[in-house]
Amino acid sequence: MNDKKFVDALFCELFEANFLHYKTSLTQPADNQQDAYGKARNALASLNDSQRMEVIDFLKIVMADSASVILGTLDGVHFPNDLEGEFTLSMNGEAIEGDLQDLFIEKAQKDNVYG
């Protein structure tokens, strides 16, 4: 049960909180700010609204792929740079294990993250 709760919490944080923040920030008018968000807004300003949303929606794929790599590593099914070993993840002393990557990808597919 903790595995599903863990994946659901991560998914919610990534796609309901973080992505919404990115989308809100990146759809503001260009303002020549030089922080990372301002630079991205300025770059996106040359696109029409539809193109801008296509680029912003692509961030969902980047976020999902990044989370998938981490979860696959914790699951012991993905070995970035030959990082092999047994990882232990727990919450309140109870192991969080299982198919975290599979649960995450399944949820992402149901929510049409991959377009």
* Rounded mean pLDDT score: 94
Portion in strands: under 5%
Structural class: mainly alpha
Q: pLDDT below 50 for ≥5 consecutive residues: which ranges?
A: none
User: How many domains?
Assistant: 1
Count of DSSP-assigned helices: 4
Biggest β-sheet description:
2 strands, antiparallel
Cα separation of the termini? 28 Å
Number of strands: 2
User: Helix and strand succession?
Assistant: HHHEEH
Shape: elongated
Q: Name the strands of the widest sheet in spatial order.
A: 1-2
Query: How much helix, percentage-wise, in residues?
Result: 55-70%
Walk me through the topology.
Blueprint: H1 2-26, H2 36-44, H3 49-75, E1 90-91, E2 94-95, H4 100-110
Antiparallel strand pairs: 1-2
Helix pairs in contact: 1-3, 1-4, 3-4
Explain the overall architecture.
The longest helix is centred in the middle third of the chain and has 27 residues, at 49-75. Helix 1 (2-26) packs across helix 4 (100-110). It contains four helices and two strands; from the N terminus they run αααββα. It is mainly α. It has one domain (2-110). The chain has a two-stranded antiparallel sheet with strand order 1-2. The chain starts with a helix and ends in a 5-residue tail after the last helix. The chain has helices at 2-26, 36-44, 49-75, 100-110, and strands at residues 90-91, 94-95. The chain is elongated.
